[in-house]
């Protein structure tokens, strides 16, 4: 860490979790990403293994999400609130409970890195300090973008290479193209499955005895009080 602070004294201001991450890096890791020869790849694998273990122990979602995890459980989410999430993917992301429930669903599909990356990018875009922007850009690149990253997201080669080039002098829009691609993937692929998942249906059908039929407009389906999806033309 002393070497790190000597090379980049601005890292004195890093958040504790990012500081712990940077302690695992050597001076060569702080340079702009570049092609590496075979002799350095083994060291890369060992470093990524340590990083993956670090993310697992400390809670990967907590590390990258701008929303603090709470003790909120599904018992605190009303069916009415949950049904709002079916209006649109954008509506789902406006609610912290919706984001957390969607994250739980993605974990069952082993694709939680998508929402974690999207949340990390949302936080990244709010940073107004150049020093913090540099450290956060390196963190996001190492965790989500570079080949064999612990939580590598599925983006095309050209987008990945553009990010690799731009984070040498990062701006708030460095990850924008990748974020949009991951957002589109979640919206078109994961979100429709989430609306029909057991995790979501358990929330929407939890009503008291004798309750009347409860329906809400949805782009893809309508739910009654038992959580059953219908295809009625009228949502009310």
From TrEMBL:
GO terms for biological process: anterior/posterior axis specification; negative regulation of signal transduction; neuromast development; otic vesicle development; otolith development; thrombocyte differentiation. SUPFAM superfamilies: Regulator of G-protein signaling, RGS. SMART domains: RGS. Coiled coil: none annotated. The keyword Repeat does not apply. It comes from the Eukaryota. Keywords: Signal transduction inhibitor. Residues 88-204 form the RGS domain. PANTHER family: REGULATOR OF G PROTEIN SIGNALING, REGULATOR OF G-PROTEIN SIGNALING 18. This is Regulator of G protein signaling 18. It comes from Seriola lalandi dorsalis.
């Amino acid at each position: 860490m002393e070497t790190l602070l000597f090379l980049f004294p601005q890292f004195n201001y890093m958040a504790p979790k990012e500081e712990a991450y940077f302690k695992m890096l050597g001076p060569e890791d702080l340079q702009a990403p570049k092609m590496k020869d075979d002799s350095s790849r083994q060291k890369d694998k060992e470093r990524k293994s340590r990083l993956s273990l670090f993310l697992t122990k400390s809670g990967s979602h907590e590390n990258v999400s701008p929303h603090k995890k709470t003790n909120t459980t599904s018992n605190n989410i009303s069916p009415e609130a949950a049904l709002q999430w079916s209006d649109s993917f954008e509506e789902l992301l406006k609610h912290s409970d919706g984001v957390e429930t969607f994250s739980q669903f993605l974990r069952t599909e082993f694709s939680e890195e998508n929402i974690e990356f999207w949340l990390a990018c949302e936080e990244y875009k709010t940073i107004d300090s150049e020093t913090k922007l540099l450290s956060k850009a390196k963190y996001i690149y190492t965790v989500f973008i570079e080949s064999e990253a612990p939580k590598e997201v599925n983006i095309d080669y050209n987008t990945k290479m553009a990010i690799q080039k731009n984070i040498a002098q990062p701006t708030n829009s460095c990850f924008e193209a990748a974020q949009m691609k991951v957002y589109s993937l979640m919206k078109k692929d994961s979100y429709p499955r989430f609306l029909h998942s057991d995790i979501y249906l358990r929330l929407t059908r939890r009503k008291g005895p004798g309750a009347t039929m409860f329906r809400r407009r949805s782009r893809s389906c309508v739910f009654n009080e038992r959580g059953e999806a219908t295809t009625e033309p009228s949502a009310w």
